[in-house]
Amino acid sequence: MIAAATIITELFLSCAALVGLFVLQRVLLRRDPWDPINRRFLFGLRITMMLFVGRVLMIMTGIDAFRILILLAAAIIPLAVLILTEGLLRRHAPPLIKAVIGGGAVIFAVSSLWYTDTIDPARLLALLGFQLLGFVLSGWLIVARDRTSLSSNENAMVVRLGLSLILFIPLAAGDFLLLYIGLPVQFSALGVLILCWLAIGLGRPHLGHRATLLNLGVMVGAALLVGAMIGLFAGAGRDGYLLTIAVIMAALFVVAILTDVRVLQLEEQSLGLLRHLATAKTDDPMTFLRDLQNHPLVEGAVVVSEDSLKDLQDEVLAQIFAAAPVLRRVDPPQLGAVADDHIAYLFSRYSATHVMLAMAQPRVLVALSMPSLNASPSAELELQVVQRMAVLMAGGKGDRHARPTR
C-alpha cells in the first residue's frame, strides 16, 4: 500500500511542480520575454522543468534512460542560479566562483550520459556537494550585495531568491540522500512550488515581505496540521504522515499560484481604461468616446447627445454634473427634488449604473452599465480619469477652433 502511495505521490509532486513552472513561465513571457532578467529566469525555469519531466517520464514508463534528463538538469541548476543571481545583482560573480560553478556543470553534465547507477552513490554525493556549493555561493553573493545599488523592487526579488535557496538546500539534500535517510519521496518539488509562488507574487508589489512571509507560514502550517490530522485518523506511520503532508502542501501552493495569476490578470484588465487613455490616437472627443465603447469594462456604453436631452432642464443638468461629473446610481448627489427626478430619469432611460459628462458645450453624456461585481475602486477611479480626459479634449478642441481676438 505504502509502495503504491509513494509512486503516486512522487508523480503528483512532479506534475504539481511542472504546473507551477509552466504558469510562472507564461507570466514571464507575457510581461517581457526579452527582458535580461526574465531571460535568465526563463533559462533556469526550463532547466528545472527538464528535471521534473525526466522524473515523470521515468515513473510513467520505467525507462532508465530518462534519468539523463534528471542528472543533466541537476548539473546545470547551480549554474542557472548563479546566472540569475548575477542578473538580479547587476554585477558579475568573482572569476573563481564562475570557474568552479561552470566547470562543475560541464563535468556533471558529461557524467549524466552514464545514466546507470554503477558509479553511484559516489556521483550522487559529489553532485549533491556541487549543488550545495552552488546554492551557498549564490546565497553569499545575495547576502554580501550592495543594497543601495538596487531599487526596492530589485531588493525584494533578491530576498525572495535567497529565501528560496534556503528552502532548496535541505530539500535538495533530501533528494540525493533519499535512500540513506529513509525518505519516501523526493520533496524538492515543494521548494520549486514555493519559488514559483514567491516569484509570481513580485507582480503585486503592494504586498510587503511581512505579508508574504505570513502567507507562506500559514500555508505551510495548514499543510502540516491537516496532514498530521489525516495521518493520525488513518493510523499511518511516519511515511504516511510525510506523504499526506507533501500532497496537501503541493495542492495548496498550486491553488495559490493559480489564484495569484488570476488576480494579476484581473488587475491588468482593471487598468484597461487607463491603457485606453495612454494609447488613444485621437484628440477628438467623439472619436475617443466611440473607441471607448468597445472596451470590455464599459462595453455597450451609450453616447447621449444634446438633442436627446432636450426634454430636460439645461440648468439642472449643469448643476448635477458640476456636483458629480461621474454620476453613480448607488450614491447620487442630493440637490433637491427636481435634480433627483432628472438623475432618476437618466439612470432609468439608459439602464445605466454610471452617467458621466463627456462634453460641456454641446453637452454630451456617456451612460454605461457596470455590474457591482466589476465596479472595483480602481475601475471607478479610471472612469473619473476618462471623464476628465474627454472634457479636456473637448475644451482643447474648442480652443483650437475659437477665433483669436484683439
Automatic annotation (TrEMBL):
Keywords assigned by UniProt, alphabetized: Membrane, Transmembrane, Transmembrane helix
Domain of life the protein comes from: Bacteria
Transmembrane segments: 6-29, 41-60, 66-84, 96-116, 122-143, 155-173, 179-200, 212-234, 240-259
Keyword DNA repair (UniProt): no
Residues forming coiled coils: none
Protein name from the UniProt record: Uncharacterized protein
The species this protein was found in: Yoonia maricola
Origin organism lineage: Bacteria, Pseudomonadati, Pseudomonadota, Alphaproteobacteria, Rhodobacterales
